Amino acid sequence: MLAISQLYKTYRQASEPSLSGLTIDFPGNIIAGLLGPNGAGKTTTISILCGLVKADSGSVKVLGYDIAEDKEEIKKRIGVVPQSIALYPTLTVTENLEYIGKLYGLTNAAIRQKTGRYLHLFGLEKSAHKAIRHFSGGMKRRANIIAALLHEPRLLILDEPTAGVDVQSRNMILQFLKEYHGQGHSILYTSHLLEEAQQLCNEIAIIDHGKLVVKGNPAELMEKNQCSSLEQVFLHLTGYTVRD
Amino acid sequence: MRKIIATLINEFRLFRKDLAGVALLFLMPLVLTIIMALIQDAPFREYQDIRFDVLWVNKDNGRLAEKMKDGLMSIPQFRLVSSYENKPLDEIKARELVQSGTFKIAIIVPEGITAEVVNSANQVANDMGKRLGAAGKLPERETRSANLEIYFDPVTKQAMKLSLLNALDKQLTKVQAEMIMGRLSDRMNSAGGDSSPSPEFDLQQKMQAVSIKEFSADRQSKVNLNTNSVQHNVPAWAIFGLFFIIIPIAGNTIREREEGSLMRIRLIPGSYFSILFGRLSFYVLLGVAQFYGMLLAGWAILPKLGLPHLYMGQAPLTLLVTAMVIAITATAYGVCIGALFQTPNQALPFGAISIVILSAIGGIWVPVEILPAGLQQLAKVSPLHWALDAINTIFLRNGGLPAVWTNLAILLGFSAVFVTIAGLVESGRQQ
After folding, report:
1. Number of A:B CB contacts under 8 A?
2. How many C-beta atoms surround the C-beta of residue A44 within 10 A?
3. pLDDT tens digit string along B386-424?
4. Is the pLDDT of residue B187 over 80?
5. Domains, in order of start, for chain B
6. For chain B, what is the mean pLDDT?
């Protein structure tokens, strides 16, 4: 699914590197969790995987395609749910999805069919013609996920998809992700909610200071570090110091 | 192509959601254009068909004053006023009316000025007669200084003063020449020769043997048009209004970046260029529609307010191409402003004020021709100057595409620079 090797990135005007030789391999069709404290390099890693940011050096392969050579092929096969609500707030959810669907080259019929299906699935069909700016936080998060699903990506990348949402919305999102994975799709997921990651992910990589700290499945990691929860493993490996 | 059309529709939807913004974008420049054309009508007419009331106080009552009066009354721009509130004007009252600003100009013809011109004419006639060997002599005395007194309201513009002084000088010269010719004729007559003018000898006609007549430099033109308030203000403020399209463009660009919708678009496979092209196309079409709306106001609304209607030249296709190129430049500038600044609070004041500055130096407020030489050179750095010059070439010089292609190339050059800056800033922001 994903192979990252010796990835380096220092932003212009930044005093410290964001990634310092990050190497992670997530093979097969899995739900992978990319965890780390603030400033660990999670968003930079995702931005490089999506082709939004260029790495200084290193190699990245997504679904077998090299990001340096086949960026467009990767973009066709991945769906990205960014941390921010990347939708037009003054447009309705239907208008947003229609535009995104057309940019992905979907036919009008396909857009209508998928929009109807996902709006129903995520409980937004009654708000189909309501402007995004009038949505609650949970509704916005759900609409944000639908926008990444219209072209049925093989790999769904989610950057903190449940941040700031109510319990019901979070439950709906997590249920959907499990079902989507069950349909043969891969998922890469970042979150600060470690309990959620523990429930959802087959494989977890904890990164800090732009490097891999540890990787494995949640049960193995807890056993290896003699911890009762993933949160304890996380604190044990990344420390108790508050990060900015 | 599908992406371009989808983006055009999306931009239209986004635009439609802000109906107040749409109304302001169209209505405010329209109101501005109409008001500026009305306000600037008088200053423009000052040099053309406006009539000046000129106070006329004749203390001389001789031939010079009468001839000058006849001469000035024959000039359409002047209306001589000899009485005020049913009372004949005197020197003190005339000066008082000018000083108070009630009238702009007063001419006082002093007592004895005709005698002075006659004396001067006699001197010339005697001198010429002597050279020609004629006997006798007309009465003459030493020359005394005599001045036609002119008073201007202190707020009178220099151009208006010069215009009046030139007209007076011309009349004075003409009257003096006529009197000299008359005295010379008398002198030769008194010497015994038959030098009296023949009945068909018309001095006025002889003195106008060579005159001035204005022609259009464009001999093929069907229309010979001078600029006026409408011809200057409508295209000038239409261009100004069109450039204000940078406000929604820059605002939307920054908001998209802040809200994340720009990121969504950049995650989509395929060239971002087609999406950018679709977006810019929408604003170019919007700008062209706005521009033609302003021209329509000049053509249809302003005549109803007592102003001349806008003449739009003889090259409608060239006008359309020019409007599109101006809209492309304005749109590119908006994209550049949107890229350069981080927040709407930074971009919008800068964008608006920069348009005001570029319009001021570009000849939108007042024609570049009357700016100081240094500012005329500075005008060349303003895209609004090249835009207005192109429109003036089409409207006033009846120019077609060959006449404006340099302007269009320069405007497209500006556009390329703006888009390049935006591209460099955006790519730098991602690194």
Report:
1. 76
2. 22
3. 999 899 888 877 788 998 999 999 999 999 999 889 888
4. no
5. 2-44+227-430 (no CATH), 51-207 (3.40.1710)
6. 81
In the three-class reduction of DSSP (H, G, I as helix; E, B as strand; rest coil), residue A240 is classed as coil
In a domain, A244, yes or no: no
CATH number at residue A146: 3.40.50.300
Contacts with B14 from chain A: Cβ below 8 Å: 88, 90-91
Locate the chain B residue with the closest alpha carbon to A131.
B17
CB contact under 8 A, A88 and B14: yes
What is the C-alpha separation between A175 and A217, in angstroms, rounded? Answer: 20
Q: Is the Cβ pair A90, B14 closer than 8 Å?
A: yes
User: Beta strands B149-152 and B105-109: pairing type?
Assistant: antiparallel
What average pLDDT does the segment A8-34 reach? 86
pLDDT category at A155 given cuts 50, 70, 90 is: very high
Which residue of B261, B276, B425 to mutate against A (max A Cβ within 10 Å)? B261
Task: Assess A164–B contact: CB distance below 8 Å, yes or no.
Answer: no
What number is the ipTM of this complex? 0.83
Does A243 reside within a domain? no
Q: What digits encode the pLDDT tens for the residues B348-388?
A: 889 889 989 998 888 888 777 777 778 888 888 999 999 99
Q: Is residue B226 scored above 70 in pLDDT?
A: no
Torsion of CA B37, B39, B41, B42, to 10 degrees: -170
The two three-digit tokens of residue B195, written as one number? 């030098």
* Residue A82 near chain B (CB below 8 Å): yes
For residue A225, tell me if it sits in a domain. Answer: yes
| A79 within a domain of the structure (yes/no) | yes
Q: How many domains does chain A have?
A: 1
Domain that holds residue A232: 2-238
What is the tens place of the pLDDT at every residue in B50-88? 567 889 998 888 888 888 888 888 877 778 899 988 888
What is the distance between the alpha carbons of residues B237 and B288, in angstroms, rounded to a whole number? 14
Q: Choosing among A13, A103, A149, A150, which should be mutated to test the B contact, i.e. which has the most B CBs within 10 A?
A: A103
* B260–A84 CB contact, under 8 Å: yes
Distances in whole angstroms, Cα of residue B333 to Cα of each of B12, B126, B205, B245, B405? 20, 75, 60, 9, 20
